[in-house]
Amino acid sequence: MMYFAELLSKKIKVNKPVLVVSNYGWGEVTGERLSAKLSEAGFNVVDVVEFRGAVRDSDVAKLRESVSKLIDAIKG
Question: Is this model's pTM higher than 0.90 or not?
Answer without folding.
Answer: no
